Amino acid sequence: MSGEASVRSAAPAEQALHRALFEPRRIALIGASADRTRLTARAQLYLRKHGFIGDILPVHPREKEVLGEKAYPSVADIPGAVDFAYILLNTPQVEGVVNAVAAKGIPAACVLADGFAESGPEGRALQERLVATARAANLRILGPNSMGVVNLNARIACSVNAALEAESLPAGRIALVSQSGSMMGAIMSRGAARGIGFSHLVGTGNEADLTAGEVAGLLVDDTQVDAILLFLEAIRRPEHFAALARRAHQAGKPVIAYKLGRSPFGAELATSHTGALAGSDAAAEAFFRAHGIARVTTLEGLLELPALMIGRRPPASAHRAVGVMTTTGGGGAMAVDCLGVAGIEAKAPDTAAAAALDEAQFPHHGRLLDVTLAGTKPDRVAAALNALQMAQDTDLALSVIGSSAQFRPQDSVAGILRARDAGHPKPIAAFLVPEAPQSLRLLAEAGIPAFRTPESAADCIRAWCDWRAPRAVPEAAAVSHALPERPDEADARRLFAALGLVSPFVVLRTPEDAPQDLTWPVALKILSPDLAHKTEVGGVRLNIADAAALKQEAAAMQHRVARMAPQAKLTGFLAQPMAKGLGEAILGFRRDPEVGPVVMLGTGGVTAELFRDVTLRLAPVTEAEAWEMITEIRGLRPLTGWRGLPRGDLAALAQAILAVSRLAARDDIAEAEINPLIIGPEGAGVTVTDAWVVRTAGR
Amino acid sequence: MSGEASVRSAAPAEQALHRALFEPRRIALIGASADRTRLTARAQLYLRKHGFIGDILPVHPREKEVLGEKAYPSVADIPGAVDFAYILLNTPQVEGVVNAVAAKGIPAACVLADGFAESGPEGRALQERLVATARAANLRILGPNSMGVVNLNARIACSVNAALEAESLPAGRIALVSQSGSMMGAIMSRGAARGIGFSHLVGTGNEADLTAGEVAGLLVDDTQVDAILLFLEAIRRPEHFAALARRAHQAGKPVIAYKLGRSPFGAELATSHTGALAGSDAAAEAFFRAHGIARVTTLEGLLELPALMIGRRPPASAHRAVGVMTTTGGGGAMAVDCLGVAGIEAKAPDTAAAAALDEAQFPHHGRLLDVTLAGTKPDRVAAALNALQMAQDTDLALSVIGSSAQFRPQDSVAGILRARDAGHPKPIAAFLVPEAPQSLRLLAEAGIPAFRTPESAADCIRAWCDWRAPRAVPEAAAVSHALPERPDEADARRLFAALGLVSPFVVLRTPEDAPQDLTWPVALKILSPDLAHKTEVGGVRLNIADAAALKQEAAAMQHRVARMAPQAKLTGFLAQPMAKGLGEAILGFRRDPEVGPVVMLGTGGVTAELFRDVTLRLAPVTEAEAWEMITEIRGLRPLTGWRGLPRGDLAALAQAILAVSRLAARDDIAEAEINPLIIGPEGAGVTVTDAWVVRTAGR
């Protein structure tokens, strides 16, 4: 098995790396211990235990032999070529050995030790030197802080993960790439208990060189892989994940992620644990969505979702609805309730499904098809599920099984198998209400999605409805507009005007300047690249009626601000007509430290902050995405004709979102925001009332 | 065992009912089948299988013997007293048999058949006749649609639930009362797989007579019971649950509920399934909270929470924070993240915990105490947990265990046991990251809370932090104020004024009436008991400057409304000064169909509706509860001095909540609302700007 090439099509360099990582025949274990109780002995023990038939080459400074294998005093002493080196030494010894590994011409190495980038500036510098050495020698590095590589089909268990203590592990067709080594083992063990086997398991740790996205990318074309799971603490190189997701979509293989950082405490930990910078979870969510990576929020869902997605394409347009049949009233109602909490509606049969149910002589009414009286005979269960599959307005047919799953596994599963074999393209799935390990295993073996809890059922079905093809990234040329080093509000407004968001304003250099072409009354603001919060230093005055009052207010403002913010450089005054509209939005652009440029829309004023009424997309966006964003903001609903209220110019808002998202192409811009953007009545456009922009440091 | 009285203290009638339901010695099985494959044979088979040593008395119209027991042609033919009758007949036969059971003087019966109140008016009438018959004969009924009664310690398995197919079931000290019979079996089977045993399991079905609250109340004083679990589809008799909760609190026994209806689809199903009326889930949540009933939202949590609560009292005031230690970085971070999503903060050690950790020589920094390097030796794990228990600002110490839980269960559990034995009152708990059934079982047997998934861990710990003693119901005399049969807005305002919420208004009977004592400008509204939406029929005009304009507007309004709503009875006009304040609230009272009187507070205007920014409490409320409600409303935060904004008169708002909640004592009032209630600056009070009240039908 390990001798055959399992990669169908990939660039030669990738093929070579795939071979070195996943099908090595000669593995150096540098720092392998002869003491079986030591962590550093495990890789050797596990390799043999799980049937590795290649050469194990322990490197040990003193021993001639380690656990029955001939040992070498140094990497250089190993005769012949080596495919893969697992460096098991302590942190201070790693650098010297990486040099030796590079000199030996080994194509791939894995570093177990931690204490690199996550430990502070010194560790970061050390990590950077490792990578520089490796790059120069075409050596690819997994880790530091990596639990190694497992390829169950090829009987390669080159890892120190204790999960490999298991006497045997079921091989399967799902690959797992995990930034956390311990979660790699935990997920494997949880899968094994369900009869869900893995093909490959890789711990990518700190990702000094190889990222989870890149490693997963190597597995897309592997003929032994049907789906790729990611356990992520941070997204370090978003372009790797984007490339992976595109290739996986082309290959028809789903990518499913569980990512930490949904809560601020988790985000803080995940990044301190890995040495990466934390982005916002909303940005990560936007990233997964844009790239067609399904995200689960339950641990069990990570194991249960693959069967639902393997061999399927993302639904063209999801109804976010399911048909549900049950052999247990209470359990069925519980499933419907949990689905509802996740935003998925259990729908009563539509005309097509009702006709099929009538033909099969099932009485039906309401959201839940209770077949308890009809019995749990396989042909009846199959008929009911096939009838529910006929519905035009659902995305899945769910069977909720009661006690038969516990005591008559074969029977309870037979109906679902038969329903599947009818070949209708709409997926079917099962939630087993009692403890029913045998039925879960039978369903897993048959490749039918089966859920152990109502919460994971709802999570997976929600993820299935959310699944989209990777989006086509819209073209967006960089707007050509020069910005000073430290822009003030007028500069920000000129930038937005260059993007097409023109709102009237004039700049006065001194209080004596006579403004031209102003519509009264106006607002007056101090201009300064140093003042982010103008109101607090008395730098804003509203509703100024005429030129005389303006002159007076400007003079007073100059004195006030100079006194309250003596360090601020004052560049003049900005006057603009008082704007009124039907609503306000906040529209911003920033570069998320994990996923890169994003555009943000929210309700204006304090509402966005009080209710977290904001939505994000990767920038630049398409017009369809801009409209989606508008739809997601609850605070903008009154502008959509809700309750007979007058409609706002949401078309202009959509164009504004598009425009702002184009800042993605301007690497010199770190952040920009309009707050508020005032939305006028339909046809009246939008007005920029306050704006700022921050340049990227050093650009 | 079954011969001894297991109830410590209860009224004689209760003791007798407890004996009949849970320790019957002579059980009649009416409609028992001689065919072992029939559902109606199961009760007899399961009773014998699980070791019942009393008399089984099958009633069968033709057979002399049923499955080896002497059978009787009718209930009347059974010699001697009978403790309990399980009626296994079809719906149409039930009524006749209940009459016979009542005539025989049997104290308790259970009805298996469905097709009663949940099936429509005929079924409802049938059910009411059953109950009337039973009441007249002092017969208590479980069901209809009940799966029966199980008392594992007494070896009574009087149920048709297929979960009793299991060869043996672990007896324990947790009682389960379930409205769903199938969930009763599913929960039992899931518990058994974890080593979590039950004392009693009861299916209450339709609850024509005995409710889940009443049955659970019978078990509070049972010496074999440490905790009571409820699986609920509807709350039918809230007073039963309130009484249960108070008694359970006095007895120091936690009550834990899983209730359907968190989503509208689930609520719809739960009620159509049981024939009950649906209340709102927010009202159910308020109900559980008021009565000190802990609510879980994960199915697994229902099994996992008891160990955390048994033997403990509700935390006096929860920090909503935990200390977390781990032997697996990624798994620990995942737990911290899930806790954060549930609103529970994993806190870094405070001074006290840090001192204890220093003394035990644990390096520590940040939110997660990673002891991986310190090893998983029991004494180290115990030392770390005991140190975390020292924190003054946490509610629990959580141990997140990695692969040792899978491969060295004894070892991994030993440290936690040792930590527990140190006797610190702060609870400790464990989340096992890999598949680790043996460790879960060992912890369950030791009575230590152990979680199988990060989601159920977060759910249970959140429920622990939310747990409160049942509240003392505040005294609230009914306000004495007469209301007409069909009140208009002026009547509603007079009612609120009687409650202490006085806001100026005048009533004009005709447009010609000259208003006295008005502060201009005013708002003018049509008065009518028939018009809930005055604006839509032109019945509201704002900002009227003086008496002349008012007269003109009133005349125009009369014509307009008469044309647009010709059926409405018009009772005059209401004029009130235009009010301005710092914010708006909606304040309402209603009677929830499940839990009874509730008071509701939300932000005013469209915000409450757009963002569901509302909170509920059982009415009447205490002042502390009123302040809690204010704190929970995000839209009121700007009035709390947030960001330097001027403070609103929240003390007046709290008094207004108290006042409105006193409507609970007025049975003649079904609903009442002030919307908006305008909140003035501190000291300036609140103003009722619109109000309505609806009387209870038939009172």
Instruction: Determine the strand fraction of chain A and express it as a percent band.
Output: 15-25%
First-to-last CA distance of chain A: 52 Å
Rg of chain A, Å, rounded? 30 Å
Which class of secondary structure composition applies to the elements of chain A?
alpha/beta
Indicate the mean pLDDT of chain A: 94
Assembly category: homodimer
Largest sheet: spatial strand order of chain A: 9-8-11-10-12-13-14
Shape of chain A: flat
Low-confidence stretches of chain A: none
> Can you count the beta strands of chain A?
30
Q: Approximately how much helix is present in the residues of chain A?
A: 25-40%
Sheet with the most strands, sense and barrel status of chain A: 7 strands, mixed
Largest interface: A-B, 75 and 75 residues
The number of helical elements of chain A comes to 22
What is this structure, in a nutshell?
Two copies of one chain form a homodimer. The first copy, chain A, is α/β, with parallel strands linked by helices.
Q: What this model shows, in words?
A:
Chain A contains 22 helices and 30 strands. In chain A, helix 6 runs parallel beside helix 7, helix 12 runs antiparallel to helix 13 (378-389) and helix 13 (378-389) runs parallel beside helix 15. A seven-stranded mixed beta sheet of chain A has the order 9-8-11-10-12-13-14, with helices on both faces. In chain A, strands 15, 16, 17, 18, 19 and 20 form a six-stranded parallel beta sheet that branches. In chain A, strands 25, 26, 27, 28, 29 and 30 form a six-stranded antiparallel beta sheet that branches. In chain A, helix 16 (437-445) links the parallel strand 19 (428-432) and strand 20. Chain A is α/β, with parallel strands linked by helices. The interface between A and B is large, with 75 and 75 residues.
